[in-house]
Amino acid sequence: MHTALVAGWAGSMALYELAVFDPSDPVLDPMWRQGMFVIPFMTRLGITNSWGGWSITGGTITNPGVWSYEGVAGAHIVFSGLCFLAAIWHWVYWDLEIFGDERTGKPSLDLPKIFGIHLFLSGVACFGFGAFHVTGLYGPGIWVSDPYGLTGKVQSVNPRVGCGSDPATVKKYARRAQLGEIFELDRATLKSDGVFRSSPRGWFTFGHASFALLFFFGHIWHGARTLFRDVFAGIDPDLDAQVEFGAFQKLGDPTTRRQVV
């Protein structure tokens, strides 16, 4: 339902902005000056043409293709409707016991397999966007600009494997996430004596991690003290009330009362 609401809002908002957008002067009256919000994001992802015959660059086109501003907005609305129907279906059939086999009492559906299929299809969709649309294999690419944002155009972006993605650099930034700074044991360059000395930011991060660990174990301790034996959980079929575990029952003593007075 959340995805349906987001996709539906994006599609309807894009259609509204297209209805009020004036593409006649993209230099002195660009989209950001007209208060557009969704269209700039679509343009950044490589959508530059409209079924109305205009382009965001100021030219006139005769064949905008399917994936224009209107096409993408309509696809979002259709996708929103499908997600909404899926949400209603799951809301109606929320009780998984209706999918159980009456003869064996076991579920007739392989729920982990169904969940895996959902994740696989979502992953294929995300991978396809990056592998085809962004790289230009089947699509325009995305908006690529210079470091100052002065010039730019829609072009394909190919993956680059170099010094920025080698294991050593990935390790440095992983340590930055853990310790608060980029840290490496390079004694030759840093002339270090091998003793780890972090910055105040690193100690601040380490202190938070330590307190988080203590709070986590405190949560486990208190959670273990407040376990409830629920009659609906199938723990004790003779139990007819929600009784705090350990409050009325002694281990190994069947004479202990089972009900709350």
TrEMBL record:
GO terms for biological process: photosynthetic electron transport chain. Keywords: Chlorophyll, Chromophore, Membrane, Photosynthesis, Photosystem II, Plastid, Transmembrane, Transmembrane helix. The keyword Plastid applies. InterPro entries: PS_antenna-like (IPR000932), PS_II_antenna-like_sf (IPR036001). Its main location: membrane. Coiled coil: none annotated. Gene3D superfamilies: Photosystem II CP47 reaction center protein. It comes from the Eukaryota. It is found in: Membrane. Pfam families: PSII (PF00421). GO terms for molecular function: chlorophyll binding. The chain crosses the membrane at residues 73-94, 115-138, 202-221. The keyword DNA-binding does not apply. It is a multi-pass membrane protein. GO terms for cellular component: photosystem II. This is Photosystem II CP47 chlorophyll apoprotein.
